[in-house]
Amino acid sequence: MFCPHCGEEIAVQAEICPKCGVRVHKTQPEVDEANVTINILSVCCTPLIGFIMYFLWKDNKPKAAKSALVWALIAIALYIVLIVGFGVLGFLLDDGY
Q1: pLDDT confidence tier of residue 85, bands split at 50, 70 and 90
Q2: Residue 54 in contact with residue 38, Cβ under 8 Å?
Q3: d(CA 33, CA 42)
C-alpha cells in the first residue's frame, strides 16, 4: 500500500505514514447511507434542505448527497403538479363571479 499524501510504500495495517505522519486510515469510517430524516424534511418541509445537504455532503457522503438531491427534486415536481392541478381545477370550477 502507498501513502496517499507522500506516495511512500507503507504497511497495509499502518494507520499513520511513518515518513510524512499523515493518517492514512480513519479510525472510524464514516457511514455513507441515505439519511431518512433529511429525505423526509426535503419532501415535507422544503426542498431547499435537500439542495443544501447535497452541496454539503457531495464530496464526503456521495450516496447520502444524491439521495437528498433526488428527494428534493421529487418534492419540487410534486409541488408543481399540485399547483397546476389546483389551477386547472379552479379554472374548471369557476362560475364567473
Answers
A1: very high
A2: no
A3: 16
